[in-house]
Amino acid sequence: MKPSARHTTYGDFLSTPFVSVPYDLLSSYANLGIHAHEMVMLLQILANGQVHGTTELSAQEVGDLCGMSSKEVLFAVERLVHEGLLGIGERWDDSGAHVTYFDLQPLWERLRGKPTPQEQSKTWRTEPFTMFEEEFGRPLSALECEQLRTWLSQDGYGCPEWMVVEALREAVLANKYSFKYIDRVLFDWQRNQVRSRQDLEQYRQQYRDRIRDTQPKKRNETQSATHQNKRSTERKPQEKATASRDERYANFYQLFPEN
């Protein structure tokens, strides 16, 4: 059978990779609150995952594919993540390097009608790397990412994620935005055999009890020191006057001693 002229003309084009896009996404993206330029960006992420097998794209790479600036891409990503339409995943590659990738799972969940944007946003924000960057208000450095991996690895403290997150909260409440401070907190918990959430709550309660027990003692010591200082202050003018009297009128008092 002779192929049609149409098939022959576009044969080279039809042999290039194709991308599968759910029709539900194309027909309802506007109802989901996705803007046209954001849709193009999501399609490029989807295409890169299907054709190249990865969604590890930088803002510059996405911008080049979509005709957008890196700043525009970052604004769009931030909005989509906030609305629960896109996620940022974290993983370690074969060389042990920390890499981030775009996660389209929140988008597919929204297309299925669940979960709500707030619930989805809350889910991905529990990831330790993301939470640290949110609380510190900046991206983590390579050394900080390595430190975080050390806390979570069996070669380091081997802490579960919830414990690292709790240590971060301790630092935030103490206004200590320092990896060194968090490391001391984790070390102290390890030293005191904190292994579970119940252990941590008991440790915190014991700490509060110790603080409460020491407060009356400190208060009594403070009151005693204040009283002692007051007595010393009261004696000083008299002693000063006596010393001054003895120095200036020594001969006089020798002639006329006090009774």
Automatic annotation (TrEMBL):
Compositionally biased residues, Basic and acidic residues: 208-221, 231-249
Region annotated Disordered, chain positions: 208-250
Location of the DnaD N-terminal domain: 22-113
Name of this chain's protein: DnaD domain-containing protein
Source organism phylogeny: Bacteria, Bacillati, Bacillota, Bacilli, Bacillales
Family the entry assigns: Belongs to the DnaB/DnaD family.
Pfam families (alphabetical): DnaB_2 (PF07261), DnaD_N (PF21984)
Organism of derivation: Alicyclobacillus fodiniaquatilis
Classification via SUPFAM superfamilies: DnaD domain-like
Superkingdom of the source species: Bacteria
Residues annotated as domain DnaB/C C-terminal: 129-203
InterPro entries: DnaB/C_C, DnaD, DnaD-like_sf, DnaD_N, WH-like_DNA-bd_sf
